[in-house]
Amino acid sequence: AGQTDDSKQDAIIDWLRGDRTLEAGATGGYLRARTSVLGDIVNSGPVYKKEADPDVSGADYAAFASTARNRTAMVYVGANDGLLHAFRASDGKELFAYLPRAVATKAPLLALPDYTHLPFVDAMPAVEEAQLTASDGATTWKTVLVSGMGGGAQGIFALDLTDPDAFDKSKVMFEFTDAD
After folding, report:
1. Sheet holding 84-88, edge to edge
2. Quick one: pLDDT at residue 131?
3. Are the beta carbons of 84 and 76 closer than 8 angstroms?
4. Separation of alpha carbons 109 and 117, rounded Å
5. Cβ atoms 107, 120 nearer than 8 A
6. For residue 4, what pLDDT is reported?
7. Can you say whether residue 28 is alpha, beta or left, with left for phi > 0 and alpha for psi between -120 and 50 degrees?
8. In angstroms, rounded to a whole number, what is the distance separating the alpha carbons of residues 119 and 152?
């Protein structure tokens, strides 16, 4: 949001992560006050995923499906706070969130006190199994989430959600925009 002061940049990042200590109304607060740290969900919707799809078949799929049977059940949803959220289905705890690069540059706008609504990640995600082939010809099964950003940006991203408990930046498979 045009901030050159590192402390303000850090404060905005913390605000995006859910820190409410600098929201307007708090002592010394100068960031937008929110009623909830979760952004509005407009065109997106929740997608539940636990086990592998029983209707898929292929080489080594049975072994993959057997392993996936015990993974954490999750609910994935895009929101207009700039994030694709991943919640544990059993208790609603957020395990991680992903901020696509295509909307990252405008995410600081969310913290401005005079912010007016903009779409960010408001497309409906899809979560399915896919057999991927490496450059050496080896194949492996993965559970992949693919989503666009709806009105937030022209593009798509894919995340490897085979093991949602171990999600990190290495699980971002790709992100493409209209500039690509």
Report:
1. 47-49, 74-78, 84-88, 94-98
2. 96
3. yes
4. 10
5. yes
6. 56
7. left
8. 5
